[in-house]
Structure formats: structure tokens, C-alpha cells
Amino acid sequence: MESRNPRNGAPMPHAPRGSARAYYRLHRVLARNRAWEALAGYLESHSRAFQAFGAAEEWSKRELFGCRMCGQCALPLTGYVCPMNCPKQLRNGPCGGVRGDGGCEVYPELQCVWVLAYERTSTTGHLQDLSMLHRPIDQRRQGESSWVNFWRGRDEAQAAEAVPGALPPIRPSAKATGSL
Length: 180
Description:
Blueprint: H1 20-29, H2 34-45, H3 47-65, H4 113-123, E1 132-134, H5 146-151, E2 159-161, H6 174-177
Helix pairs in contact: 2-3
């Protein structure tokens, strides 16, 4: 379940439930294709189905990954460790305060989410995913279904190869342009 500091509501590092290998396999099954795009379109045009789907996604991702429903899921690029559970919500790697034992700077008794991500990606052959550059979170997407956004192609520009001296092109979101 989502880990939050009871005093201030800030996120706390969360170790995901389940095997990263199993999640990578599941992600291949759920990869964007015409069928999933059609389902996403159906869901968006039927509010009750969309709400039920969103509630199921929120519950399952919260229980498995401590998901915060940012609508811009980075799980497939971080070994299925949610970077939004970093107390500093860092999406591009750890802060400078990771302890020698892998403990979080803010919560030393808990392992840094980026140490967990490194361990899970390196044991599954996905270590190169951690070199991807993640754009800052678009707060307007908070609470949206990241699966629907993925299937509809709204998150294609979320991360890009980090190329020295070059920035990947930025494409506005559908909400920002007024089209949905």
C-alpha cells in the first residue's frame, strides 16, 4: 500500500510486491496495440466503465507499488519501483544523500527507491532503462489512468535517451492543447 509519513503526508520509500520479471512479462502483454487503444477509447467514452477501470487500476497499483496515480507511470523504466515514492519525488535517480547501506536520506531505516530500482533492473537485464531521462511530472495528469494514457499514446514523450548536449523534443499533452 502507498507509504506516507503520518505526520506530514509526504511519500515514503516503498518496496514493490512481486517479481520485476513477472511485471515485465505482463507489460509486454499489455503493450500498446489496436485492441488496447480501442479499449481505452471505449473506457473514455463510457464514464462508469472508465471510473471502474480507474478505481481497479488505482487499488492494484497502490497495493503492489505504492502508486500515487500521477497518470505518467515510470514503473516499466524503474524495475517496477515507483520513483514518486521517493520523499523528494525524484524521477531521474537518487539524491546525493543515499546512505552507504542503501538507506534513504530522509528515512534511513528504509531502502532508497533508486537502490531498489537498480537492484531490480540489473537482475532482469533492464539496467539500461535507468539511463532514460524522465521529464518533470505534469501535475495536470494527477489521478488519471496511466494505462489509458499509455494505450492512447499520451505518454510517449515522457522519457528519452539522455544524449549529451541535446534535449529530446517536448510535445504538449492532450490536456494542454485542449484536445482529448
